[in-house]
Structures are given as structure tokens and as C-alpha cells.
Amino acid sequence: MPDWDSRQYLKFESDRTRPTRDLLAQVPLARARKIVDLGCGPGNSTELLVARYLDAKVIGLDSSPDMLVRARERLPAHEFVQADVATWQPAPDTDLLFANATFQWVPDHPSVLKRLLQALPSGSVLAVQMPDNMNEAPLNFMGEIAREGGWVTAETDKRQRDNPLDPEEYYDLLRPHCQSLDMWHSVYAHVLDNAAAIVEWFKGTALRPYTTPLSDAARDAYLAAFETRVAATFPPRYDGKVILNFPRFFMVATR
Question: How far is the C-alpha of 85 from the C-alpha of 83, rounded, in Å?
């Protein structure tokens, strides 16, 4: 997969950080020694962890060089590591593994979650949020438009990721290995300026595998077709704004 573009991602920083705040609010640790922000991106989630746990060593981990550059600029006093969470292993003194919108990109993420939880000491926490929007209209449009317009590549001619499992499946997988497991869904109603803003939102995330392999002309044509489909599906409200509903799934497991 192509590297992330931190500037594009941060165009909607406030909206993207809100689920991070909601996940962090449910972490039941009053204090922590060591925290790892898995898939830290440009450091917006890491910044919240640093602010809450003033005495903790907070480490950001991400596979994207571009995201890590931005995170280090944002929090120069803190450690950031380039690594693949699929194979990374936490240190035995880790109190919190925090992952906001990360594991949906990790192959076979349920087994990775189980492995990471089992690696934590008793009383430590694994906190996870994942988008649950693969059945939403914009995500369906991406593949449909690529096929209809002949913009399919080796990268796009496959399902990029899946929705999270059902809560019952995570319960059976993780609950035997932890003291408690809290799970919930939230649907965020993001108020955006127009259909073009919805396109900009997804250009920072789910559209990347579709647009990056294309030439400039093909990319422009693809995005124009995507915006046309989005505009027909998300009518403007009384003030011209549009509302992007975005379901997300949360889990907080205490080892």
C-alpha cells in the first residue's frame, strides 16, 4: 500500500480525533508507566495520551514514514518508532496499548489483537477503535467506479479491508484472556461543507489504494466520478452542508 499523506489526513483533524477522545475516556487506568500508541499517525492521538498521563513514557508506533515525520514535529520530546503492528511485540512493563483506527488495516487483525492482549501483564489495557463503515455508500462507490471506468489495478481489484467482527466474536476470542471487555458502537454524524469535502475526507484514507496507482489524468477522472456519485447520494441540508454518517466500533480490554 502507498505511504500515507499526513497533510491530507489532518485536513479533518478535529473530526478524526473525536473518536480518539471517546476511546481514551473509557480507559480505566488512573496512572500508567508505559503507553504505546499503535498506528499513531501524525501524533494527534499520542498528544492526547501525553496530556492525560503526564508521568508515563508514551511511545508512538506507525509503519508510515510520512506520518512519523509529522508526529515527531508535533511532539519532539517523545519517542516514535517505525514498525509493523502485525509482528511487533510490547515490552513486559507496558500498561496501555492504544489503537485508534489502526487494526482495520492489519491482516488477520483478530489473531494480532489476541497475541497483543496475551502479551500484556495483569491489569494492563488494550484499547481499540476501528471504522465499521465498509457497508456505507461511499465505500461501495469506490470499487464500483473503479470497475465501471476501467480504473482497476492490481491493488484495487481486491477488497481493501473488512468491517470489524461482530461483538460476540471478539468476546469469545478475547474475554478468556482478560478481566473485563467493554464493547460499543458509535455513529458519528460529521457535518462537512459539501460533497467535495466528503471526497477530501476519503482521499486521506480509503481512497488511497484506488487513486495512487493512477496517472494524474485518470486520477482526476476517477475522483470526478466519485464526487458525482457522492453528490447524488448526500443532498445538501438547508445551509448547503452535508452529513457523513460514520459508524465505529470500540473495545477496551483489561488484562
Answer: 6
Look at residue 1 and tell me if it is in a domain.
no
pTM for the whole structure: 0.91
| Domain presence at residue 152 | yes
- Cell output for 10: 489532518
Q: DSSP code of 163?
A: P
Task: Provide the 10 A C-beta neighbour count for residue 137.
Answer: 15
For residue 231, give the CATH number of its domain: 3.40.50.150
Q: Which residues pair with 36 in a beta bridge?
A: 59, 97
Residue with cell 448526500: 234
Residue 49: in which H helix or E strand, if any? helix 44-52
Measured distance CA(77)–CA(71) in Å, rounded: 11
Number of domain units in the chain: 1
Pairing relationship of beta strands 57-62 and 34-38 according to DSSP bridges:
parallel
In Å, how far from its chain's centre is CA 27?
A: 18
Q: What is the mean pLDDT of each run of 10 residues along the chain (255 residues)?
A: 56 85 97 97 95 97 94 96 97 97 94 98 98 94 93 67 92 98 97 95 88 93 97 97 97 98
Q: Is residue 137 part of a domain?
A: yes
φ/ψ region of 187 (left if φ > 0, alpha if ψ in -120 to 50, else beta) reads beta
